[in-house]
Amino acid sequence: MNDENTRIYELKEKVRKFCEERDWDQFHKGKELVIALVIEIGELLEHFRWKSELEIEGILKDKKKREEIEDEVADIFYFLLRFAQKNNIDLSEALERKMKKNEEKYPVSKFKGLNKKYTEVV
């Protein structure tokens, strides 16, 4: 399984089946899933706290540490997929819609090379 030949729907189904086999629907309400998502993001952040760019490059080259980071990314993705699956959110459609909004908020002519919020640029 890899990104090039995997459909989001298949991943959502894999997560659904995994959770249903364990009777976890009862625990996976919206609030709990969002809390779990934030916790997992925090766990990912722990790997980078107080690290320089050079240290981060080293971490990502270290096989064991990289796998730990990939595990945290997978946990984040799992809870995002589960939240979307439980709430009938089509992630592809949501991303496409949001990207169109971002294109309007952040036109290339004004934001190329800038890292400012759209409200900070006239």
Query: What value does the Rg take, in angstroms?
Result: 18 Å
What are the segments in which pLDDT stays under 50 over at least 5 consecutive residues? Answer: none
* Average of the residue pLDDT scores: 97
Helix content: 55-70%
* CATH class category name of the largest domain: Mainly Alpha
User: What is the total tally of β strands?
Assistant: 0
- Major beta sheet summary: none
Give me the CATH superfamily of the largest domain.
MazG-like
Number of helices: 6
**Helices and strands, in N-to-C order?**
HHHHHH
Overall number of domains: 2
- Shape summary: globular
Q: Can you give a write-up of this model?
A:
- With 122 residues, the protein is mainly alpha-helical.
- The protein folds into two domains: 3-89, Orthogonal Bundle (Helix Hairpins); 91-122, no CATH class.
- Helices cover 68% and strands 0% of the residues.
- It is built from six helices and no strands.
- It has helices spanning 8-21, 30-46, 53-61, 63-86, 91-105, 108-111.
- Helix 1 (8-21) packs across helix 4 (63-86) and helix 2 packs antiparallel against helix 4 (63-86).
- It starts with 7 loop residues before the first helix and ends in an 11-residue tail after the last helix.
- The relative contact order is 0.10.
- The mean pLDDT is 97.
